[in-house]
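Ticket #4471: structure output looks truncated?

Reporter: J.K.
Steps to reproduce: submitted the chain below (194 residues) through the standard prediction queue, then opened the result file.
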Amino acid sequence: MAHINLLPWREEAQKAKQQLFFTLLTAIVIFAFIIVFAINQYYQARIDGQNVRNQYLSNEIKKLDLRIGEIKTLKEKKQALQQRIRVIEQLQRSRNVGTQVLDEIAKIVPAGIYLTKLEKKGNTLFIVGKSESNNHLANMIRAIESSNLLSDAILESISNNDAKSKLLSDFKMKVRIKGLIDTELDKKPAKEDK
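Returned output as attached by the reporter:
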């Protein structure tokens, strides 16, 4: 019988298996690398897309901030114009207030009351005079309260100091004129704001 050496065949088969193993291993590594690279590219594309959207939103927010700033300045201008309109309307209403007050005083002062002094400060009218009786003063206060131009009559004092005329008593009264700008009150908040 001839001697058959099987060792080289086994070595060749083992080498073939090793080569197949390394080939498969290389293919799996390449395939895994391709999958990881594809997944990385997919997520990188999503991140880039999100960054583009974020940049777009940031640009739009900046545009809206500019518009909001413009709207605020427009609102401030509107408020300033409205304030001017209110002042002009009040000045228009109070244009003939002197003659209107004198006309209204002539209507509300009953017989038996004599005015000696009228003084106007802002929207307040100070009245000094003489009265024959307190009933006449009460009637005058009622007439002031029902007036369309005058209101808030405050009787500050009634006195009878004059020995010669015991029939007449002196009085001082403060009355508010409706619809006028109170210049003293308008100046006070401006000082407090500073």
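Triage note (M.O.): checked the attachment and the full token line is present. The CA atoms of residues 122 and 184 lie 7 Å apart.
Status: closed, working as intended.
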